[in-house]
Amino acid sequence: MFEFTDAVLLARIQFAFTVSFHFLFPAFTIGLASFLAVLNGLWLWTKDSKYLDLFRYWIKIFALAFAMGVVSGIVMSYQFGTNWSVFSDRAGPVIGGPMAYEVLSAFFLEAGFLGIMLFGRERVGPTLHMIACMAVAAGTAASAFWILSVNSWMHTPAGFEIDPETGQFLPTDFWQVIFNPSFPYRLAHTVTAAYLTTAFVVGGVAALHLLKGRARNAKVSPATRTMFSMAMWMATVFAPVQVFLGDLHGLNTLEHQPVKVMAMEGHFKSYPGGAPLYLFGIPNQDEQRLDYAVGIPKLSSLILKHELNAPLAGLDTVPRDEQPPVAIVFWSFRIMVAIGFGMLGIGLWSLWARMRGRLYDHPLLHRAALLMTPSGLIAVLAGWFTTEVGRQPYTIYGYLRTSDSAAPLDAAAVGASLVAFVIVYFAVFGAGTYYILRLMGRPPMQSEPSVAEEMDSPIRTAGITPAQQLTMKSNRNRISGD
Fold first, then answer.
1. Is 215 exposed, middle or buried (0-12, 13-18, 19+ CB in 10 A)?
2. Which residue ranges run through the membrane (predicted)?
3. SS3 letters for 70-131?
4. Model's pTM, two decimal places?
5. pLDDT, averaged across the chain
């Protein structure tokens, strides 16, 4: 089946599939962990039960998404030793340390305090439980820090030397490795994207229940209204910040990876007197032109160089074997930008509705927010495709080609594992995602049950003996019967 297929291409497809599947979960849980910490803090400060109800509602979803993110992430680390063993051997001395720190600091922090966050409210007291919530939120952010540092180094490598005998990349300055030229921009852009992803998922779920309540002429709970309000505040504040960060990131990319920007802009030829911003077009890489192009004259030069007539080089200055797949980069970039401005529009629209006192009584806004529920997930994937495909044909930009990074495996072996991943991922993670959607399909209840109550209380893992559990169940049955 795979005899005549390129093994490197199959390995790239496999890694793209697994990393895309994995990245959806951290993109959601990074923001959701912080949202839960804020909700718990508001509950402790105000003692308003709606914050506790929202905390209990979303922590069940968080636990499932976190678990699926961990499991899907483990698979990726194995691929470094199988499909990409040459890359691991060459780059291991540099990237091994930061990836180990991610496990030792971020993952241990998350895993160590997650159980207390889920089950410990009544057992450790409010102060320690709040510390656990903050620790999990800090752990998710720290995980993003280390992973993005490694990935950014692959885009803008710094602080290393190459061993002339082994060809290995050896670190010479740890701080330059970590804080490489693109890292601060990519960290800020990605973490803000994660917060916006969470905001639009939370806002979309709230909008769904606001619309359902309106259709049934039923009273919507204060928790649902608060959920929508907080999500729209996030969209209003962070969407314009993300546009600004995206501009800074783009300027940094132009400085260090100009070929990627050429592909993003669809500039097959150079423009000595100001480059247009192409809104639409069909990249024709074989003929090195943009077909059916629709653009605004000189706007690309104004955005990238802050001058209308600033010259911009095109792909005609780059050898064919140094060019990335332009069509993927061109379209994924436009999808990301379009969604970003859509988020900005929803945020401003919600601010207008809030100022008019119609935030909870504006069905058109609620439908738009519901439609935008998956927008953050789509945008982070589009941004990831833009970044990673735009780096091709390199894994370590300018130094190590992708074709030289793959393990010497047959296409049949890589293809068989790819098929297995596709089947298992859609079965296992499809079931988990379906259950998450079912949880989101019902609104938060007044006196929302905790995770322990939903599970009918853990037995030994939380220190409850079987006899105690039977007594608690008997008491609950007696009370409900009375």
1. exposed
2. 20-45, 57-80, 100-120, 127-148, 192-211, 223-245, 328-352, 364-385, 411-437
3. HHHHHHHHHHHHCCCHHHHHHHHHHHHHHHHHHHHHHHHHHHHHHHHHHHCHHHHCHHHHHH
4. 0.87
5. 86
**pLDDT tens track for 281-322:** 999 988 889 899 898 998 998 988 888 888 989 899 989 989
List, for residues 257-286, the tens digit of each pLDDT value.
Answer: 999 999 999 999 999 888 899 999 999 988
Q: What is the 3-state secondary structure (H, E, C) of the chain?
A: CCCCCCHHHHHHHHHHHHHHHHHHHHHHHHHHHHHHHHHHHHHHHHCCHHHHHHHHHHHHHHHHHHHHHHHHHHHHHHHHHCCCHHHHHHHHHHHHHHHHHHHHHHHHHHHHHHHHHHHCHHHHCHHHHHHHHHHHHHHHHHHHHHHHHHHHHHHCCCCEEECCCCCCEEECCHHHHHCCCCHHHHHHHHHHHHHHHHHHHHHHHHHHHHHHHHHCCCCCCHHHHHHHHHHHHHHHHHHHHHHHHHHHHHHHHHHHCHHHHHHHHCCCCCECCCCCEEEEEEEECCCCEEEEEEEECCHHHHHHHCCCCCCECCHHHCCHHHCCCHHHHHHHHHHHHHHHHHHHHHHHHHHHHHHCCCCCCCHHHHHHHHHCCCHHHHHHHHHHHHHHHHCCCEEECCCEEHHHCCCCCCHHHHHHHHHHHHHHHHHHHHHHHHHHHHHHCCCCCCCCCCHHHHCCCCCCCCCCCHHHHHHHHHHHHHHHHC
Q: Is residue 39's pLDDT more than 90? A: yes
Q: What is the CA radius of gyration of the chain?
A: 25
